[in-house]
Write a structure and sequence with these properties.
two-stranded antiparallel sheet, mainly alpha, elongated
Length: 116
């Protein structure tokens, strides 16, 4: 995994795990890699993974079953989508609109590119 300089590594790892949950690589009830397994896989200190897992637990995305490991919660996919939609509407879209306005891009021009 390649890391960006503009964001904490543990947040980037949490985002990556969240992507895997949204893309159904990990489904609700699935066991995720142990702290040591994931640390070795992404090439970071296990303490970084513990911080990642603590963050995801605080958001209700994963849960720790003592002695067994970490598991994806039933509400994880919906919770991640809700958080990401909020981020999109609060930060990404306003910046996008500002940039489009500065470039003189009309709503009609945008609509041509937004038809999916």
């Amino acid at each position: 995994m390649e890391f960006k300089n503009n964001q904490s590594i543990y947040i980037q790892i949490a985002d990556n795990l969240s992507d895997k949950i949204i893309n159904e690589e990990y489904k609700p009830g699935d066991k995720i890699p142990s702290v040591r397994e994931l640390a070795a896989e992404v090439g970071v200190n296990p303490n970084t993974i513990m911080r990642t897992y603590t963050e995801l637990q605080s958001k209700g995305i994963i849960e720790n079953k003592r002695g067994i490991g970490y598991f994806v919660t039933d509400i994880a996919p919906e919770s991640i989508m809700k958080e990401r939609k909020n981020l999109f509407f609060e930060k990404i879209l306003p910046q996008f609109i500002k940039e489009a306005s500065q470039l003189g891009i009309t709503p009609e021009e945008l609509k041509k590119h937004l038809d999916l």
